[in-house]
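Researcher: Going back to the complex we discussed earlier. I've cleaned up the inputs and rechecked each line, so this should be the final set. Can you rerun the prediction on the complete assembly and write out the structure?
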Amino acid sequence: MSYRVAVVGATGAVGREMLKTLAQRNFPAREVAAIASGRSVGQEVSFGDKTLAVQSLEKFDFAGWDIGLFSPGAAVSAVHAPRAAAAGCVVIDNTSQFRMEPDVPLVVPEVNPEALGRIKRGIVANPNCSTIQMVVALKPLHDRFRIRRVVVATYQSTSGAGKEAMEELMAQTRASLVHDPIVVEQFTKQIAFNVIPHIDRFMDDGSTKEEWKMAAETRKILDPDIKVIATCARVPVFIGHAEAVHVEFEKKVTVAAAREILREAPGVQVVDRREDGGYVTPLESQGEDATFVSRLREDPTVENGLAFWCVADNLRKGAALNAVQIAEVLVAQAKRGDGALARRAA
Amino acid sequence: MSYRVAVVGATGAVGREMLKTLAQRNFPAREVAAIASGRSVGQEVSFGDKTLAVQSLEKFDFAGWDIGLFSPGAAVSAVHAPRAAAAGCVVIDNTSQFRMEPDVPLVVPEVNPEALGRIKRGIVANPNCSTIQMVVALKPLHDRFRIRRVVVATYQSTSGAGKEAMEELMAQTRASLVHDPIVVEQFTKQIAFNVIPHIDRFMDDGSTKEEWKMAAETRKILDPDIKVIATCARVPVFIGHAEAVHVEFEKKVTVAAAREILREAPGVQVVDRREDGGYVTPLESQGEDATFVSRLREDPTVENGLAFWCVADNLRKGAALNAVQIAEVLVAQAKRGDGALARRAA
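Model: Rerun complete. Updated structure for the full complex:
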């Protein structure tokens, strides 16, 4: 069996990573289409050792296409993901558009693959980047020690805001070094040599939408009883999100037990030597599939407390890789004659 | 009354800021000496519109000098601060050497100026930069709502590690832009376009000394019953530390009440509009005296929870300014015929 895969938003940072990931993992695709908004038509993007001509989303007919990997922005997905689904294409959407809809599964394959048995509208949602890496690390700990509350502060790279945001960090850095004027367009303030405590829009309670997402998505994916308070900040890094995670469990936790569980956990790589360099930084996560856990410590300030540092490539596990992994689960289901792709074939 | 002031470590990032701060605040100094290790002799440093020739610490006689502002590194202070104190010079030491000694006051003038009435060994300790700004913001809230526990994650600039560390960020940034090899000397990994979750040395419990300092110093300065868990990380910023602070209080807290208290609090400036740019970033704190508080939110995941974002210039309030403010309190005491400087004159 092989599939026709449409990558929507193919010229963006995540779209390009989706194409790269499909090629690297030898996804069983007999045809791949690179799709973006009309103004990108004429561009070409790489897919393995081939280049694909970008096709217009507005004019694209999804009939006959099996899987749509969408990352075009929420407003665009709102229109075109249901259109693709109506044409019989199973959409894996990386935008925030459908994540909290009760009848759309929100999936991290290492955490809640069973939700892929409940695809109703032909759409699966890919969680927010900062949520994905956190729940990959939290899931095995939750199974053993039961999480009550998480306090997390993030150090998020500019690629989470897209290609233009990365270019702005580069341009501002260059300008700063030669004392040229700094142009601020993608962020609210200069990001070069700075930290901005604001990602996505403000909510009524003073949180940002990004902070709200980390709480709401964690509850939907992992357990509705887990309490999460997040502070999300943008740092002058190109790729790789880091998180300082402080967890309170119901049951007694030790570093030794947590480390052993995390060592066996799918998608997790523990790098935790208590010495110079014995931890993973965002730069080192770039291009890697794993969610890295470092700096494991018991937190003596609360009952059953544990702190750790968590890093992942936000374009890969935080976006493209997770989406492709979802597609791989659908393919495996179809091989067993089961799931959304099999229903489609039938 | 005016005083003879010796600035020790005058060629470092903090020493230079001490000289700048003394000049800017018109500190009543009738003479200022710039002192550093023997290898810096021959250099000159700025003091207001003058330049001072650097003198050798090893050969410097502190007799007749009233105040010593020390920032030469802990091992050097260990030797020379007691030597200066024995000569009758009141030492305000910015290193970690004496901070936790029971008979050395650890002082933030907005928080515990009363500790300056208990100078016994002729030495006052200036707290760690990340502690200072946090306790300036916490003190007025603690007085009103009583703090139980603080969970803090820091975003610390390279200047906290000294002048060479700032130069390394600059050099690595330049090298990175032109794809030259990256030289790592001051940090354990590349800091340009990266985040390093490691400041100071590792402790047995897996914390770093910086994380331990934030807890131990907060308890010594503010209240021994406050529990603090910190995760400290270095970010590619030149000057200005930021902190994501999550506090649990004994009494009910609201954002409105917290904001009103912080607006009146000495040393604090509240900048907190829930809109694009309505918060302070490290870059904006540079050269400022205030500790800025932004992003005030109630934390619904815990009883009486409050979260906020706290930023200050780590070289000023985090080091030089706080030291000079301590000296100013000593001067005010002396005017009333009281305190360490008055005893010295007598």
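Model: Worth noting: Chain A touches chain B through 58 residues (CB under 8 Å).
Researcher: Good, that matches what I expected from the previous run.
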